[in-house]
Structure prediction request, 228 residues.
Amino acid sequence: DAGVIQSPRHEVTEMGQEVTLRCKPISGHNSLFWYRQTMMRGLELLIYFNNNVPIDDSGMPEDRFSAKMPNASFSTLKIQPSEPRDSAVYFCASSWGAPQGTQYFGPGTRLLVL
Amino acid sequence: GNSVTQMEGPVTLSEEAFLTINCTYTATGYPSLFWYVQYPGEGLQLLLKATKADDKGSNKGFEATYRKETTSFHLEKGSVQVSDSAVYFCALTLNTGTASKLTFGTGTRLQVTL
Prediction:
């Protein structure tokens, strides 16, 4: 299996621009998670889906952030408009077999907002 | 609420030294416990896990025992290698719900020198 795939791997944008991060989970997994990692705040869960349905979005920092999962093989995390404080590494992870299913992480998208 | 506390890093060891990274947790139920490892520039990888009290997880020479009485899950390795240099995250998930939502510690950076 190819593992969790994220794109792009690196993104540099200017403040105010829209940013879209993409994730393809492992085939057959039914849960998908979006995390943000920064030096200051560590690893934060933003939102997670089960069977394509958002279960908990309490970690989404504000309305500028939105996430969708239109089907079992694709999810997006969108930031509009972006701000410099959004600069971070964003990870997607997927799992199967709740509640103890192991989460498999993608390589991450490193976002820099200037 | 649920939380995970890890020892502050960085931990610097010479090759072949003994490693312990402390992890304690607070949970409202009976969690499963995990150690994830993050190598530079990569996503997190599951290192080992334990799903009930007194279970021992092990992988690649690393071990951790689920201690309910002390609410701990300390990571140990008898002889570290330079290639073990990474950030180690302790995490828990509760054995309820529809998805394996993880609560992470802040991570402990390990640096192994020759």
Chain B has no helices and twelve strands.
